[in-house]
């Protein structure tokens, strides 16, 4: 009867891979980075512009309610003509 030694060769490749994984240095954690685009910065300014517009609208409403708002028909006509000429 012949008894062969049990070989550990089938286990060795896995052991080497395991050892490589444990010896690799840990990567430094990634840092978060925040970039604000120019468009976003412009949108942050929007409430300021919106407040100016609200003030103008309030002024127009007040003039219309009091009857002091006058329409400049000639000025409107000139702007319309210029608009369509430049188009």
From TrEMBL:
Signal peptide: none
Feature: compositional bias, Polar residues: 1-11
Every Anti-sigma-28 factor FlgM C-terminal domain range: 32-82
Sequence segments annotated as region (Disordered): 1-33
Keywords recorded for this protein, A-Z: Bacterial flagellum biogenesis, Cell projection, Cilium, Flagellum, Repressor, Transcription, Transcription regulation
Keyword Transcription regulation: yes
Annotated TM spans: none
Gene Ontology biological process terms from the UniProt entry: bacterial-type flagellum organization; negative regulation of DNA-templated transcription
Domain of life: Bacteria
Family membership: Belongs to the FlgM family.
Name of the featured protein: Negative regulator of flagellin synthesis
Natural source organism: Bacillus gobiensis
